[in-house]
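so my prof wants the structure for this chain in the C-alpha cells format not the other one, which i didnt know existed until like an hour ago. anyway here's the sequence
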Amino acid sequence: MQSASRSILSSSRWSFRALPVVAAVLALASAAFGQSSTAVPTTTTLTTAPASSASGKTTLTVHVSPAPQSAAAAGTVTFEETDSSGQPHSLGSAFVAADGSASLTVPALPAGVHAVRAVYSGTESSAASTSAPAGVTAEAAAPDFSLTAVPTTLNLDAGIAGSVAVTITPSAGFNNYVALSCAGLPLFTSCSFLPSNVDVTGKNGLSTMTLNTTAPSGNTGALRHDSGFVYCFLLPGAIGLLGLAFGRNRGLRMLAMLCVVGSLIGGASSCAQRYRYLNYGPTPNLGTPAGESIIRIYGTAVNGALSTSKCFQVTLNMTSTNTSGTSGNILTPCS
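here's what i got, hopefully its the right format
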C-alpha cells in the first residue's frame, strides 16, 4: 500500500512538470493553425523585360494578388534562378509595394535562356506563394568604351597652352584602337593629342590633349631704318652698268636693258615689302578671343563596317584682350 502511494505521488509530480511543456506546444500549434486559417491565399505573377544588348541588364517584375492589406509590412519577393544542376540560387530580393508590385534589375546574366521564378514571403494576413517559372533570354553586352577627361574646366590666358588627360575605359571585352579628335575650338586655337590613336586592349587607354592658344599682337613700330636706296637701286644699277659696258651687239644691249628694267621693277617691289615690314612690323593678330567655349573630344573606333563614336566635353574659359572675336566660341555640348 505504501509503495503504490509513492508511485502515484511520483506520477503526479511528473504530470505537473510536463504541463508547461504541453501547454507551450498547444499554444504554438494553435497560433500556427490560427495564422494559416486567417491568411489570405495569394498569387504571384512574374513578368520580364527583354535584356538590353547594350547594358546586359534584365528587369524582373512581379505582382502579388490580392495586394497585402498591411502596406507597412507587405513582405518581400526573392527571385531565384535554377541552374543546370537543378539547384536554385538567389538573384536578389525586393520589397513588395502597397499595390502588390515589386521589381528587380539584374546587372548582368550570362548569355542564354534562364529559368527564373519569384517567391513571395507572405505576411500575417497574406499567404506565401511562388510564381510559375519564366524564361529570361539574356544577350551578351556588346564591346564598348567610354571617354573621360581631367580637368573638365580649363582657365587660360591667351597665349598660354593647357593640357587635359584623356582616359578611354573599355567594357564587355572591348579590344580596338580609338582615334581622338576635337571640335568647338575658338578662333586662333588648335588642339593636338599624344598619342592620337590609342591602343585599348582590355585596359584603360591614356592620351594627353594640348590646347594651344594665341596671344594678341599689335603694331611694333619701326624695327629698323634701312635706306630704301640701297635695296632698290644698288644691285639693279650694278647689273645695268655691267650690261651696258660689255654688251657690243645691239641685240645683247637691248636684252641687257630689259634685264635692268625687270630688276628695277622687282627690286622696287621687294624693297617696298621689306621696308614696310622692317618699319611697321607684321600684321597685327587679335589673338584667341575671350569668353567660354565647349571643347568636344571625340573618340572613334572602327571595326570593319561598324564605327563607334563617343563624345566628352571640356569647358575652356579664356582671358584675353580680344573681346570682339567671341563668335569663334561654339557653345554646343555633347549630345
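also thought this was worth mentioning. The CA atoms of residues 300 and 309 lie 4 Å apart.
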